[in-house]
Specification:
Elements lengths: L1 H32 L7 H15 L5 H11 L7 H24 L5 H18 L8 H23 L14 H18 L6 H10 L7 H23 L4 H24 L2 H24 L13
C-alpha cells in the first residue's frame, strides 16, 4: 500500500515539477520579449514576506494588494493579474516542497482526488460568476469560516471530541472532502481562497493539520498555473514586479515549509484557527466593499 502511495505521489510530483519549469520558461521568455526584465528590489522583498506567510496558510493576495495600493507599485488594472502571475511560481514551489516533505504521509487517493476536484471546480465555476451575487457568496463563506473556527477552538480546548493525527480518512469522509474541494474550486472564482477552508475542514475530520498543506498546495498550484499562463499571453501584467515577487517568494516558501514541518501539532492547530479567522474577516470585508469588475478578479491562493 505504501509503495502504491509513493507511486501516485511521484505521478503527481513529476508533472508538477515539469509544469513549474515550463511556467518559469514562459515567464522569462515573455519578460525578455517585452523588455521587462529589470527586477525591482521592493518586489523581491514583498514576494518573500507574503509568500512566507502564505506557506503558513495565511494567504498572500490580501497583503500584496494592500501593499500595491499603498505604494502605487502597479496600475489598478494590472494588480489582479500581476499578483496571480507573481505568486504562481512560489505556490508551485510550495506544492513540490510539501509533497516531498509530507506527501508520503497523505492518503494518495485523497491527495490526488482533492487536487483534481479543485481544478475542475475552478473551470466549472468560471462562467457562474457573472450570474451570481459575489458578495452573498463571500458573506456566507465568511460566516461559515467563523463557525468552523469556533468549533475547531472547542476541539483544541478538549471541549469537543476530535482526532487530529490521521493521514487518511474513512471512505465516506474521503468522498466528502473531494466533493468539498470541487465546491472550493467553484468558490475560487468568487474570491474565496481554498487554504483556510481546507485546513479547518480536514482538521475537523481528524487529519493531522500538517498533512492538509500538500493537499491544498497541490490543487492551488495547478489552478493558478493555468490561469497565469493565460494572463501572460494576454499581456496585462507588470512582469518586472511579477518576476521579482517570484524570486523573493521561492526561497521564503522553502524556509516556511520547514517551519510548518517542525512546528508542534498543538501550536499548528492554533495557527489554523488564526488563519481561518483572518480569512473570514478578509472575506466579510471584501463582501462589504464596492465591487471591482469581475473580469479582473484573480483566483486567490
Amino acid at each position: 500500500m505504501r509503495r502504491a502511495g509513493e507511486g501516485m505521489l511521484i505521478a503527481l510530483l513529476v508533472p508538477l515539477a515539469l509544469a513549474s519549469a515550463v511556467y518559469a520558461f514562459l515567464l522569462v521568455r515573455a519578460a525578455m520579449a517585452r523588455k521587462q526584465f529589470a527586477v525591482r528590489g521592493e518586489a523581491v522583498v514583498l514576494g518573500a514576506v507574503t509568500n512566507f506567510f502564505d506557506t503558513l496558510g495565511i494567504g498572500s493576495f490580501a497583503p500584496t494588494m494592500a501593499w500595491f495600493k499603498f505604494r502605487g507599485m502597479v496600475p489598478d488594472r494590472l494588480i489582479p493579474c500581476t499578483m496571480l502571475v507573481g505568486h504562481t511560481l512560489p505556490v508551485m514551489a510550495q506544492a513540490v516542497i510539501f509533497l516531498t516533505l509530507l506527501g508520503v504521509g497523505v492518503d494518495p487517493v485523497l491527495l490526488v482526488g482533492c487536487a483534481i476536484a479543485l481544478v475542475m471546480g475552478g473551470l466549472v465555476g468560471a462562467p457562474l460568476v457573472a450570474k451570481a451575487r459575489v458578495w452573498v457568496v463571500q458573506t456566507v463563506v465568511g460566516v461559515a469560516l467563523i463557525v468552523a473556527a469556533a468549533l475547531y477552538a472547542l476541539t483544541n480546548l478538549h471541549l469537543m471530541p476530535a482526532g487530529g493525527t490521521a493521514g487518511s480518512l474513512p471512505p465516506m469522509l474521503t468522498i466528502i472532502a473531494i466533493a468539498a474541494n470541487f465546491v472550493l474550486g467553484v468558490l475560487l472564482n468568487f474570491g474565496v481562497g481554498n487554504y483556510a477552508p481546507t485546513l479547518v475542514m480536514l482538521s475537523l475530520m481528524g487529519m493531522d493539520p500538517r498533512l492538509s498543506f500538500p493537499i491544498m498546495a497541490a490543487g492551488a498550484a495547478l489552478t493558478a498555473a493555468g490561469a497565469s499562463v493565460r494572463h501572460i499571453a494576454i499581456g496585462e501584467v507588470d512582469l518586472r514586479i511579477a518576476i521579482g515577487m517570484a524570486l523573493g517568494g521561492i526561497p521564503a516558501v522553502l524556509i516556511a515549509a520547514f517551519v510548518v514541518k517542525a512546528m508542534p501539532v498543538e501550536l499548528l492547530r492554533w495557527l489554523v484557527i488564526a488563519v481561518v479567522l483572518y480569512a473570514a474577516v478578509t472575506m466579510l470585508r471584501a463582501a462589504a466593499l464596492p465591487k471591482a469588475p469581475l473580469a479582473d478578479a484573480p483566483l486567490p491562493l
